[in-house]
Amino acid sequence: MIRSKTLLALLVAVPLAGCISFGAKPPPSLLSLTSAVSVPAGQTQSSATSPTITILVPGAAQAIAGTRVPVQASETSIAYVTNAQWVEPPNRMFVRLLIDTVPARTGRIVLSSAQSFSDPGAVLSGELRNFGVDAATNQAVVTFDGSLIRTSGKVVEKRRFEARVPVTAIAAAPVGQALNTAANQVAAEIADWVGK
Fold first, then answer.
1. Structurally, how many domains does the chain consist of?
2. Residue 126 belongs to a domain with what CATH number?
3. Which of 164, 159, 86 is nearest to 126 (CA)?
4. Where is the ABC-type transport auxiliary lipoprotein component domain (predicted)?
C-alpha cells in the first residue's frame, strides 16, 4: 500500500517538474561600471605623505536599490529597461568607482572601514538619488547627494552632483554605456570637490 502511494505521488510530480521556476530568466549579459581613471598598478601610497579618506557605501533610493535599471516613465511612474540588469546594486558599484577615481585625481589614500577606526581622515558619505533613465529627455541620469567631513571636526559640507548623458535607445547596451559615462562624470566632480 505504501509503495503504491509513493509511486502515485511520483507520477503526479513528474509533469509538474517542468512547470516550476525558481526565478526569472537572467538577461543575456549583466551590466557593470568601469572606472575612467585609477591608480596605476605597482604605485605605492603612504599615509605619512598623503591625506586619507574613508568612503562609505551610499544609501540608495528604493527604485535603484536592486539590480534592475529604472526608467522614469512619468513624474509618478517607473518602468525598467527590458533585459537590463546590473551585476550588483548601483550604490555598491558606484562606491568602487569613487574608490578608483578619488585617489587617481587627488592623491588621497582611501581607507577601508577596518583601517579607518584609528583615524578615518576625511569621510565621504551620501545618497545615490538617481541611477537610471529619464524617458522624457532620453537621458541617463546619475544624481548623488554627498556629505563630506574634511577633518576630525564636526563641520559637514553637503553638495549635490548630477550628470546627464544622452541615450540613443532605451535598451540594455546603450543605457549601460550612458550610465557608465554619467557615473564617471559624477565621480570626477566628487573627487575634485574632495581634493580642494
1. 1
2. 3.40.50.10610
3. 159
4. 39-191
Cell of 40: 596605476
- Tell me, what amino acid is at 78? I
Tell me whether residue 191 is in a domain: yes
157-190 pLDDT, tens digit per residue, is 999 999 999 999 999 999 999 999 999 999 999 9
Spatial distance between the Cα atoms of 185 and 194, rounded to a whole number of angstroms: 14
Strands 59-60 and 78-85: unpaired
The structure's pTM equals: 0.83
Residues 97 and 115: beta-carbon distance below 8 Å: no
Residues of the domain holding 155 = 49-195
Q: How far apart are CA 101 and CA 106, in angstroms?
A: 8
